[in-house]
Amino acid sequence: DTGVSQDPRHKITKRGQNVTFRCDPISEHNRLYWYRQTLGQGPEFLTYFQNEAQLEKSRLLSDRFSAERPKGSFSTLEIQRTEQGDSAMYLCASSPRQGTAGANVLTFGAGSRLTVL
Amino acid sequence: AQKVTQAQTEISVVEKEDVTLDCVYETRDTTYYLFWYKQPPSGELVFLIRRNSFDEQNEISGRYSWNFQKSTSSFNFTITASQVVDSAVYFCALSEFMDTGRRALTFGSGTRLQVQP
Predict the structure, then answer these.
(1) A46 interface with B at CB cutoff 8 Å
(2) Does B98 reach chain A within 8 Å, measured CB to CB?
(3) Inter-chain touch B45–A108, beta carbons under 8 Å
(4) pLDDT for res B66
(5) What is the Cα–Cα distance from A63 to A49, expressed in whole angstroms?
(6) CB distance B44–A109 less than 8 Å?
(7) pLDDT for position B109
(8) In 10 A of CB A64, how many CB atoms?
(9) In whole angstroms, what is the distance from residue A101 CA to residue B19 CA?
(10) A110 vs A98: CA distance, rounded Å
(11) According to the model, what pLDDT value does residue A1 have?
(12) Are A95 and B104 within 8 A, CB to CB?
């Protein structure tokens, strides 16, 4: 397994367009997270999946944002009607199920950088 | 609410110098985990260490060492004999357990370390 993969790595879009990011977690990890990181800041939590269930959403996740993990494997994060303030790095992370080795350690992908013009 | 403060926004050292990155945290939990992650220019967050709140022993791993002091709520990170490859942004993070089974990871704002040859 090569770790957490994210696609695309970079996306430039015009304000008002929709964008979608994909995350492929480590295959044996059942927990998946999305974070957002703006310049000069640490990552901020957006949402959390356990298997296919979305168990938590941050208040940062406005109604223009939607995330799915339909089969409990890969996940997508869609942003509708993008705004310039959405420009950021979107990071995906995964971790194994509770009770297993490394359960509390998140493994991050390289991120998808979004620029909204 | 938990909080992580990394007061040093940027540090510049010359190769082979020792450098300490400071981290101060706030939490009401008695059980928590502390982490350090490294973010090189490529963008991927790389896990360095996890320490749980009941284990105050310092840890050394090669040129890296960590000093956890519960009395001062600090978890500092020292790089001995720094190398150019150590240049990156380093994040301290605090984790608390949520009812959903998620470990909520709160990051500091990061310290950018530049090691000059």
Answers:
(1) no
(2) yes
(3) yes
(4) 93
(5) 18
(6) yes
(7) 95
(8) 13
(9) 31
(10) 24
(11) 54
(12) no
Percent of chain A with pLDDT over 70: 99
With an 8 Å Cβ cutoff, are B103 and A104 in contact?
Answer: yes
Question: Would you tell me how many other CB atoms lie within 10 Å of the CB of residue A102?
Answer: 12
pLDDT (tens digit per residue) in B39-75? 998 888 999 999 988 888 888 889 999 999 999 999 9
Shortest distance, CA A30 to any CA of chain B (angstroms): 11
**A42/B95 Cβ within 8 A:** no
Torsion over CA: A86, A88, A92, A98 (sign): negative
Over the stretch A84-114, which tens digit does the pLDDT of each residue have? 999 999 999 999 887 777 777 899 999 999 9
Closest CA of chain B from A75, distance in Å: 17
Among A48-52, A86-90, B5-9, the range scoring the smallest mean pLDDT is A48-52
Residues of A in contact with B103 (CB under 8 A): 95, 104, 106
